């Protein structure tokens, strides 16, 4: 059918309407029209043996049994004809062509805020530098270089730095597309990808920042207990194998105390934390300068830090001073402290460890210097399991007979199993912190310029520091010392410290304060991030954390942050905590890249970043790198982190407050919808994909409330949330005068839809009259390929008592229009008695009365209903009607086979309906119907008179029906008549017999009226009466009865008679769903 697109005046940015700006387009040239389809529906006919293919079987339906459906026969075959053609059933053509890509569209506008004060260097560069450089550089980088080798270490650094550089490019584009207030990455992601993604990733970023605080505190305590005051340890190990557990317990105790102290500092004086940030940054810079100075000095004057080797094994020299087995004192050879560690006594004849006896002690320089050529030995990796000895393969070694005892001896060993992916996870936190500049955008003089330059420059600087550090460490330090994580072979000194100049304490003290400052800043930033998320209101259970002290400090958020941070402290191992926070940061960076890529590809009007050096391919590469590093580092942590984010996403989607932030996901949804609609428009759906797309026509009362909410319940049960549902209503009048009523009606309908769990759209139309409004809905509801194909209405049960005949005439016009539009129609009788969504029907049946085949709707609807838990216990029964010439037994077999191929479970019964004479009761019903119709046409009766006459006719009908039923029960000789003159004369003679029934005699006295009856009406009434008798007899106890709905007469003069036929057809049945097909196949036997 044709579709009109009309220009509507819309205000533009200047306040003028588009019509004022483009007056030349208003003369009608901007109304686009599609060429009308000759068939009127724009849908090509399907090549089916069932529908619209009756040229070869123009049967003569002059019999009386099916007269009610005789006008359907030229389009819809009888079931018997259908079953005859079952063997010739062929599949429909697929007809699905793929076309068109959808790009573009939609976004909203963001506010701009002025930004004063800081420049690029102080506002972005230095904060990023301070956040990126930290604990991993000082405590783990040398160990990573020694374990992975220079080449693989460079690969790790390059991989992680590339990831952050690509993320910084994407972040610069997002951050310069408007102002980023407090919340930093959370704000960017939530406003770019929507509240669900923003909340999920924001909470992940919060958890990452919180665990980063735990990592910095653990680094602080490790420096304190290992390098500054080892004697402060509460737990000490008597045996070497217990040293690791003792260290972890000390970390837990001191870490908890340090966390509590830092939390108090943040709670009481957060302004002092910000003032001390410069001091902490100075410590970091001085430490790095000290390292480079030490590297330069080592090239001509390497420091003297000897490492004692037994054979090729590295020894812990914590408990001995001289790397000797024996020494000469006063011309006497005596054992050394080292001897006592490997032998059972100080005597020279004591029993000693065999490896100690067979191998010589060697002293090598821990830091041979930049020009020593040690770089070639440190090129390759030296991974190993937990407890593996740290060895120098260049030195000679005589094998150990009992290596199991080695763990009790003072060798340097691996404290964890090492492999490439583990080191990636441990190293990645050292490149985080790139968001520090964007978080301060409100304090920058020119955020649009400072954020990209400062962030990218900081990443480039730190990347250079890490790359040069890897090379210099590998070129200056002996490999066994690099792999000595805690410096046990150099008397417990920090390995990177002994390289530095002028003194190792510069690095120790600098790294200590650096870790303290980073921990304080994490405990300062994480609660504020949580507060920003809570104040957005997208996660309801977090709203309590949006409150704080009078000055806005997030007290409750700080408390939660401290509790989560304590979990990281209890883990106690820096190497175990680092991969956890890596996951959360990587997920955050991944979605920053996704936000940039989505906005770029959608080309939303508001996407106008001042930073121009970005591309969606770089964003996708960065996103892929983030995802890859997550699974490289730890696949199980990655799955857990994604699971947490997924749960938060679904929770926000299900329970969170609805927010419209003009996010990219909304634009992506619009583009996807547009693309799908264009694809759907290309061809009608295949039979296998057909499902009822419903237009539900509701009636509202005077208060604009829904009259029959059970119609929505039936819709929900029929759809089970799938497919399209449009709930429509028509208000009479003009839109200008009824705008408020229309909006109130729409809200009431949406509320009823939510109550009945009906997923779909609401469409309220205001029209000058109901007839036109309903017609407009049937023609124009939906969009493109997402249009309804089925109309669901309730049966107008009070049409006889209606003061205005237009109500039932509107119903008939709906039937005619759906037929003309090739749409199916469902009419529910007694819809208020249908079950609600909370009801659970017990054992029972859904009875299908299949009289004519009009596409298979009668077969499909019970199957769809039984998918819902309301109807799932019901069984399906199919009844079909056999004529005089039909083979009932063969029909039953064919129908069972047909159902078998359709994969439907149903009982089958063929009801024989032989040609018979028309009963007197049928004539009586027809006469009353025509008399009432004539009277109402000729007389202008008042409302009370019409109601009184309608009640009188109803009482008379009921009494006559009861008389005929009593006659049936009394004996088999029910009167059947085909009214010819001879039969009338014979019947009159019979009625004169003494035992003749008085009611029959009275009826015969009306013979002149019967002779003048319209024979077409008589035959139709005969069909309605006989079918009603059979259906009531078989299906009165069914939970639901579905039957074919006959079409209205072509001559509108018989509309009221049509309503009478349907009323007689439905008499005595409670829940009925009349079905009228849309003229196409909706069910197929093929896969």
Question: What labels describe this entry?
Answer:
1087 residues, alpha/beta, Amino acid/polyamine transporter I, 5 domains, ten-stranded mixed sheet, three-stranded antiparallel sheet, 49% helix, 8% strand, elongated, SLC12A_fam, transmembrane helix
Question: Any overview of this molecule?
Answer:
With 1087 residues, the protein is an alpha/beta fold. The protein folds into five domains: 96-100 and 115-301 and 416-633, Amino acid/polyamine transporter I (Up-down Bundle); 306-414, no CATH class; 639-683, no CATH class; 687-839, Rossmann fold (3-Layer(aba) Sandwich), CATH 3.40.50; 842-960 and 1013-1086, no CATH class. 49% of the residues lie in helices and 8% in strands. It contains 35 helices and 19 strands. The strands form five sheets. A ten-stranded mixed beta sheet has the order 10-9-8-11-12-19-18-13-14-15, sandwiched between helices. Strands 4-3-7 form a three-stranded antiparallel beta sheet, with no helix packed on it. It has a two-stranded antiparallel ribbon with strand order 1-2. Helix 5 runs antiparallel to helix 20, helix 7 (195-228) packs antiparallel against helix 17 (504-536) and helix 12 (420-427) crosses helix 19. The longest helix is centred in the first third of the chain and has 35 residues, at 141-175. It is elongated.
């Amino acid at each position: 059918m044709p579709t009109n697109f009309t220009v509507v005046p819309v205000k533009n940015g200047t306040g003028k309407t588009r019509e004022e700006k483009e007056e030349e387009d208003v003369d009608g040239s901007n109304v686009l029209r599609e060429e009308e389809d000759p068939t009127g529906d724009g849908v090509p006919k399907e090549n089916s043996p069932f529908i619209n293919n009756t040229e070869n079987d123009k049967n003569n339906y002059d019999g009386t049994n099916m007269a009610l459906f005789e006008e359907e026969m030229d389009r819809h075959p009888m079931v018997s004809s259908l079953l005859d053609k079952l063997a010739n059933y062929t599949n429909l053509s697929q007809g699905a062509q793929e076309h068109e890509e959808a790009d573009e569209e939609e976004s909203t506008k963001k506010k701009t805020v002025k930004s004063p004060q800081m420049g690029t260097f102080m506002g972005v560069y230095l904060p990023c530098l301070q956040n990126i450089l930290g604990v991993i550089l000082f405590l783990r980088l040398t160990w990573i270089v020694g374990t992975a080798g220079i080449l693989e270490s460079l690969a790790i650094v390059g991989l992680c730095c590339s990831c952050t550089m690509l993320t910084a490019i994407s972040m610069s584009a997002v951050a310069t597309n408007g102002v980023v207030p407090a919340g930093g990455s959370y704000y960017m992601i939530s406003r770019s990808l929507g509240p669900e993604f923003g909340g999920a990733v924001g909470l992940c970023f919060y958890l990452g920042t919180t665990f980063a605080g735990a990592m910095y505190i653990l680094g602080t305590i490790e420096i304190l207990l290992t390098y500054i005051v080892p004697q402060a340890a509460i737990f000490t190990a008597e045996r070497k194998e217990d040293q690791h557990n003792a260290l972890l317990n000390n970390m837990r105790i001191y870490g908890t105390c340090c966390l509590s102290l830092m939390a108090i500092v943040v709670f009481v004086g957060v302004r002092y934390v910000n003032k001390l940030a410069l001091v902490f940054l100075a410590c970091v810079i001085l430490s790095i300068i000290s390292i480079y100075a030490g590297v330069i000095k080592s090239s001509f004057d390497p420091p003297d830090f000897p490492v004692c080797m037994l054979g090729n094994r590295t020894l812990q020299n914590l408990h001995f001073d001289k790397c000797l087995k024996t020494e000469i004192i006063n011309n006497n050879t005596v054992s050394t402290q080292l001897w006592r560690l490997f032998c059972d006594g100080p005597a020279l004849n004591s029993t000693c460890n065999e490896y100690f006896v067979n191998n010589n002690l060697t002293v090598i320089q821990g830091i041979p210097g930049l020009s020593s050529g040690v770089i070639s030995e440190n090129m390759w990796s030296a991974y190993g399991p937990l407890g593996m000895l740290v060895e120098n393969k260049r030195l000679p070694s005589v094998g150990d007979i009992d290596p199991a005892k080695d763990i009790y001896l003072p060798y340097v060993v691996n404290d964890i199993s090492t492999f490439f992916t583990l080191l990636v996870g441990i190293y990645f936190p050292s490149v985080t912190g790139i968001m520090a500049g964007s978080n301060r955008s409100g304090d920058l003089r020119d955020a649009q310029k400072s954020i990209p330059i400062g962030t990218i420059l900081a990443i480039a600087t730190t990347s250079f520091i890490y790359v040069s550090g890897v090379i210099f460490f590998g070129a200056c330090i002996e490999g066994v010392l690099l792999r000595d994580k805690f410096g046990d072979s150099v008397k417990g000194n920090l390995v990177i410290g002994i390289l530095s100049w002028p003194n190792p304490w510069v690095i120790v003290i600098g790294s200590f304060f650096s870790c303290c400052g980073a921990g304080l800043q994490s405990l300062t930033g994480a609660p504020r991030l949580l507060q920003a998320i809570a104040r957005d209101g997208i996660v309801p259970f977090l709203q309590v954390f949006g409150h704080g002290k009078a000055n806005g400090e997030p007290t409750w958020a700080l408390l939660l942050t401290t509790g989560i941070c304590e979990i990281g402290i209890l883990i106690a191992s820096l190497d175990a905590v680092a991969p956890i926070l890596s996951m959360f940061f990587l997920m955050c960076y991944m979605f920053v890249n996704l936000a940039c890529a989505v906005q770029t590809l959608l080309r939303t009007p508001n996407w106008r970043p001042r930073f121009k050096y970005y591309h969606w391919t770089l964003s996708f590469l960065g996103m892929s790198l983030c995802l890859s590093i997550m699974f490289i580092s730890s696949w199980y942590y990655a799955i857990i982190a994604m699971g947490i984010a997924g749960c938060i996403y679904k929770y926000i989607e299900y329970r969170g407050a609805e927010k419209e932030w003009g996010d990219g996901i909304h634009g992506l949804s619009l583009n996807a919808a547009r693309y799908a609609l264009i694809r759907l428009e290309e061809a009608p759906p295949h039979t296998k994909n057909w499902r009822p797309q419903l237009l539900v026509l509701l009636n509202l009362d005077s208060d604009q409330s829904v009259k029959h909410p059970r119609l929505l319940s039936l819709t929900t049960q029929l759809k089970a949330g799938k497919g399209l549902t449009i709930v429509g209503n028509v208000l009479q009048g003009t839109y200008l005068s009824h705008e408020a009523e229309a909006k109130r009606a729409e809200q009431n309908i949406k509320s009823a839809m939510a109550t009945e769990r009906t997923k779909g759209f609401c469409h309220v139309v205001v029209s000058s009259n109901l007839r036109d409004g309903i017609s407009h809905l049937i023609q124009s509801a939906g969009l493109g390929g997402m249009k309804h194909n089925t109309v669901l209405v309730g049966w107008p049960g009070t049409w006889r008592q209606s003061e205005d005949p237009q109500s039932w005439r509107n119903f008939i016009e709906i039937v005619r229009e759906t037929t003309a539009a090739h749409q199916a129609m469902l009419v529910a009788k007694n819809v208020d008695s249908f079950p609600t969504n909370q009801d659970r029907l017990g054992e029972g049946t859904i009875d299908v009365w299949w009289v004519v085949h009009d596409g298979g709707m009668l077969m499909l609807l019970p199957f769809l209903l039984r998918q819902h838990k309301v109807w799932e216990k019901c069984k399906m029964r199919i009844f079909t009607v056999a004529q005089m010439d039909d083979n009932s037994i063969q029909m039953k077999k064919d129908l069972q086979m047909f159902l078998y191929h359709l994969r439907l479970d149903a009982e089958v019964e063929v009801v024989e309906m032989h040609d018979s004479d028309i009963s007197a009761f049928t004539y009586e019903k027809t006469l009353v119907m025509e008399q009432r119709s004539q009277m109402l046409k000729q007389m202008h009766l008042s409302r009370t008179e019409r109601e009184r006459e309608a009640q009188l006719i109803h009482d008379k009908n009921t009494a006559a029906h009861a008389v005929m039923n009593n006659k049936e029960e009394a004996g088999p000789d029910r009167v059947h008549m085909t009214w010819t003159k001879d039969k009338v004369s014979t019947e009159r003679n019979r009625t004169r017999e003494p035992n003749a029934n008085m009611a029959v005699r009275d009826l015969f006295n009306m013979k002149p009226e019967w002779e003048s009856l319209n024979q077409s009406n008589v035959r139709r009434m005969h069909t309605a009466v006989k079918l009603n008798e059979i259906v009531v007899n078989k299906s009165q106890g069914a939970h639901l009865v579905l039957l074919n709905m006959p079409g209205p007469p072509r001559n509108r003069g018989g509309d009221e008679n049509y309503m009478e036929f349907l009323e007689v057809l439905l008499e005595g049945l409670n829940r009925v769903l009349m079905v009228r097909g849309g003229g196409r196949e909706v069910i197929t036997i093929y896969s």
